[in-house]
Design goal:
By secondary structure, the protein is mainly alpha-helical. The chain folds into 2 domains: about 1-55; about 60-190, no CATH class. It is built from 6 helices and 3 strands, in the order αααβββααα. A 3-stranded antiparallel beta sheet has the order 1-2-3, covered by helices on one side. Helix 3 packs across helix 5 (about 125-155), helix 4 (about 105-120) packs antiparallel against helix 5 and helix 5 (about 125-155) packs antiparallel against helix 6 (about 160-190). It is elongated, with a radius of gyration of 24 Å. The two termini are about 45 Å apart. The model has no long low-confidence stretch (mean pLDDT about 85).
């Protein structure tokens, strides 16, 4: 009888090990698929942004930047900071900000949106995640540029430090944070 119990326990252990190995293999495949999809989509989006013939037809970055700069200039005017704008430049009393790709928020939105597109979920949840994330990232980015303008006027000696280390870091952390919120949203929606 002991041999049979021992054999049954061994069979159970083998089944458990096989199931665990299958789960690990499935997870590795999902992670690999996510990474490959993410990299391919990121490459396609960067090509669409930077290939000259496409830029000549529709300059997404230029269009996006002009609207961000215009909105920031309006916000600065509302809060009493005098400025003028021309193209991607916001001229302030003691500093000029040139809002380029990476500063205009488009890069953060692309990184976030592509992560959502690469992650396995239904299209309704993907659309909700992209729209909500886009709105949130834009609000944060507009406030970030306003803060940079303020710091460029009042804290000029540490402006570069604030711009490179604090302001950019904030966008990275917030983009990653809202992606984790999205993952939680998808997980909770799937269990309901």
């Amino acid at each position: 009888m002991k041999k049979e119990e021992s054999f049954a326990a061994m069979k159970k252990d083998i089944r458990h090990t096989v199931k665990a190995a299958a789960n690990v293999s499935s997870q590795n495949l999902s992670i690999s698929r996510f990474v490959i999809t993410y990299l391919v989509l990121m490459g396609i989006f960067f090509l669409l942004l930077w290939v000259k013939p496409i830029q000549n037809i529709i300059d997404v970055n230029g269009f996006y930047t002009i609207h961000v700069v215009s909105t920031v200039a309006k916000i600065l005017g509302i809060i009493g900071i005098p400025c003028t704008q021309q193209g991607s430049i916001i001229a302030l009393p003691s500093i000029a900000l040139d809002v380029k790709f990476g500063c205009n928020g488009l890069e953060a939105v692309m990184i976030y949106a592509i992560a959502i597109l690469a992650y396995p979920a239904d299209w309704k949840r993907k659309l909700i995640g992209i729209v909500a994330g886009f709105i949130f990232l834009q609000i944060v980015n507009l406030l970030r540029i306003v803060f940079l303008a303020y710091s460029g006027i009042h804290f000029k000696s540490i402006f570069e430090y604030i711009h490179i280390y604090i302001a950019q870091g904030i966008m990275i952390v917030i983009s990653l944070g809202i992606f984790f919120i999205y993952l939680n949203y998808v997980k909770n929606s799937a269990t309901q």
